Task: structure prediction
Amino acid sequence: MPEYHNDGADALPASKSQRKRDMDALQDIGRALTELPAAKLKKMNLDDGLLVALLDFQKITANGAKRRQLQYIGKLMRDIDPEPIEQQLAALRGDSSAHTRWLHLLERWRERLVEDDSHVQQLINDFPQLDVQQLRTMVRNARKEREESKPPKANRQLFQLLKELIPEQGKPANSGDEQDNTQDE
Result:
């Protein structure tokens, strides 16, 4: 079945060179995936066959075998939509503006929590599944660190808690809505 690229008025079959560029682009995405640790690969919702091929690639030591496995990964990539994978890779690299906005949102929440108890109560109301005692302890420790000019260990823990709690745009939500949380800024 020939691929068609509609660059002009008439739909022409893709040239051999264009198909090769497309396959190389998919193989490049596969190469980027091979550089990720196994734990991150497992979190990415990849096709099972692709995930196994990527994990196998990481076990291979011979250069020729690595090259063949990379070609196989590129072949598997032809059958899946690469767009979600590219978005996740961009987010991991920090290229994604949506990911950056989400990180800024988390940072604002952390600052508000440390500054004022009313925001702690608002977060508890927005996310009822939250462990209230753990949150209050983290906030109290973060405030104490700030007052004593200590390293921000509790601040980091609070950020990680928020990261698990507030979903990133386009990722499955635990509960709540990110848009509701940004309205009072």
